[in-house]
User: What shape does this take?
Amino acid sequence: MRVNHWLIAAAIAFLAVAAGFFTFACAMPKAKTPDLSGFSFPTAEIVPAIDTLMNKTVELQDATSGLKTAIAGAQTKEEEQHALLEELTAKSEQNKNLSDTVYEEMIVNRLGQPIYKKSGKNSSLLVFELDKEDMRGYMAKIKLKSDKALRVTLADNSKGETTAEAVKRMGAVLGINGGGFATSTVDGIKTLVPMGNTMIEGKLVNDFIASWNDLAFAGFSKSGKLVGGVYDKEEQLKKSGAWQGVSFVPVLIRDWEPSEIPKKWAKTKQPRTVLGQYPNGDLFFIVVDGRQSNWSNGITLEEMQILLLRLGVMEAFNLDGGGSTTFVYNSKVLNKPSDGSCRKLATNIVIMP
Assistant: This one.
């Protein structure tokens, strides 16, 4: 029998390696088993720590659950508000086809029972009281009969004038505060300067100022149509047909569509003054008092949008609010300004009888 020498050599080599590995393993020192006889586990210290950790864990879980619930509630409220806006917008669109008489009755019913009525050669108006849980104010629906019925006024002196003073000076029947303003001091003399663009009888009070920080122009054509918006160029303002107006922020409603409110303005309750118009051309003024917990907390701009749509208003602009918010009828200040007294202003908007 023939033997394969190569296989024999390989077998011998394998046996040699295996023998060497066995010898090495036997020569290694054995691991010692640790002596735990004298060790004492610190149960008294560890158990309370574990209990504390478990309590903190439960508290964190409760807090997390509460936060999730709050977030879900806020999201639900926002969704409901958005749905309501869509519903009100859809209903407002249907009002376009109503007759003037039916439409007039519907709007007055929404506003409530008028507390004052006035009719003259230039205008006729109804005044309503707004009285809700934590919100009070006044509203007016005005029908213009001539191009002299509505006037934007500029204070005769640099120190400004209150709305009541402007109403008296112009011989008006109704007045609300106008646009925003700033105080400028020159040679130690303080002067009220209207914010943005102010227009009276087709002419700008100062040079045109491009919009910034959402500043909008709110005004009227010569026929009394409410016009305005954010204008970057003077040509845009002229193209709107504006005859008079003031500036503040922001635009609230355009063609029954609520405008997006910048977050910094949206959710803070404040005294408000708003200028609006119905599709039949009637104007709508509303003031809401605020900063007075025993009287009225004010209203957010998003809440104002919902209120205006409920009342059927088609177009609306926010005017200067806060301590400037004032509503004057027949020379009497009806609302309660948050400053405790009427503020001196640069501009006002009045209705002639």
